TrEMBL record:
PANTHER family xrefs: PHOSPHATIDYLGLYCEROL--PROLIPOPROTEIN DIACYLGLYCERYL TRANSFERASE (PTHR30589:SF0), PROLIPOPROTEIN DIACYLGLYCERYL TRANSFERASE (PTHR30589)
Pathway: Protein modification; lipoprotein biosynthesis (diacylglyceryl transfer)
Keywords, alphabetical: Cell membrane, Membrane, Transferase, Transmembrane, Transmembrane helix
Gene name as annotated: lgt
Biological role: Catalyzes the transfer of the diacylglyceryl group from phosphatidylglycerol to the sulfhydryl group of the N-terminal cysteine of a prolipoprotein, the first step in the formation of mature lipoproteins.
Enzyme class name: transferase
Keyword Cytoplasm: no
Subcellular location: Cell membrane
NCBIfam families named among the record's database cross-references: lgt
Similarity comment: family membership: Belongs to the Lgt family.
Topology relative to the membrane: Multi-pass membrane protein
Chief location of this protein within or outside the cell: membrane
Protein name: Phosphatidylglycerol--prolipoprotein diacylglyceryl transferase
Record has Ubl conjugation as a keyword: no
Length: 268
């Protein structure tokens, strides 16, 4: 069994100003997305320029933040919102949802596509490889904050199990790191590799949706469900798995439609 490396959630404090590690992870996520998008946009015949990349990352960031917060309230704690509607705006108390953030980003991409008169699915294919690396930083932030810990594990079988002080004194899976590796690093490698191959329009976005849904569902088997929710669907499926099902189905459908059309897009 490993000792959880307790890290001060405040990375830097200057008087009353406190910069938290989780906030820094968000900055790293958006910074990495901007760098990767700029690199891809500057390749020959990409069809993208620096101004478009800047606006895309800005719109995407707004979609992540607003959608993530609204999604958490709607999907994970709607009763608290009904009791205290102003809680929606107290983001410093925590509470963000990936699935809500995804919906926010999809809406933001719609506005971006309309503004620049780009095909929506082309924009989605360009954005898809940018997302997993940001997810990786986000899950590392969860680990540093000692939140969203895993289920209880047997140290004899899982020697890397950890005791998370904010949970209890039981050894648990460091599921935040599992998610950082699966839906972050692994998904990034797969989607980026696939995006550099000849493929039909909207196939890259479809691979991201399907891949994330599958990998998130796998990781959820090691993650402790939210205490106030527990399990859905007869007590065996977590809320994260339930919300990932539409992503898996949508990814499969879009992938089938993309290859049935068989219109291969230039690599960008």
């Amino acid at each position: 069994m490993l000792t959880y490396p307790e890290i001060d959630p405040v990375a830097l404090a200057i008087g009353p100003l406190k910069i938290h590690w989780y906030g820094l992870m968000y900055l790293l996520a958006f910074g990495a997305a901007y760098w990767l998008a700029t690199w891809r946009a500057r390749r020959p015949h990409s069809g993208w320029n620096d101004q478009q990349v800047s606006d895309l990352v800005f719109f995407g960031a707004m979609g992540v933040i607003l959608g993530g917060r609204f999604g958490y309230v709607l999907f994970y704690n709607f009763p608290q919102f009904l009791e205290d509607p102003l809680w929606l705006f107290r983001v410093w108390e925590g509470g963000m949802s990936f699935h809500g953030g995804l919906l926010g980003v999809l809406a933001a991409l719609g506005w971006f596509s309309f503004k620049y008169k780009k095909n929506y699915f082309d924009v989605g294919d360009f954005v898809a490889p940018l997302v997993p690396i940001g997810l990786m930083f986000g899950r590392i932030g969860n680990f540093i904050g000692g939140e969203l810990w895993g289920r209880v594990a047997d140290p004899a079988l899982v020697p890397w199990a950890m005791v998370f002080p904010r949970a209890d004194d039981l050894p648990r899976h460091p599921s935040q790191l599992y998610q950082a590796g699966l839906e972050g690093l692994l998904l990034f490698v797969v989607v980026l590799w696939y995006s550099n191959r000849p493929r039909p329009r909207m196939a890259v976005g479809a691979v991201f949706l399907f891949g994330y849904g599958i990998l998130r569902s796998v990781a959820e088997f090691f993650r402790e469900p939210d205490a106030h929710i527990g399990f859905d669907l007869f007590g065996w499926m977590s809320r994260g798995q339930l919300l990932s099902l539409p992503m898996i189905l949508a990814g499969l459908i879009l992938l089938l439609v993309a290859y049935r059309r068989n219109r291969f897009a230039p690599v960008s």
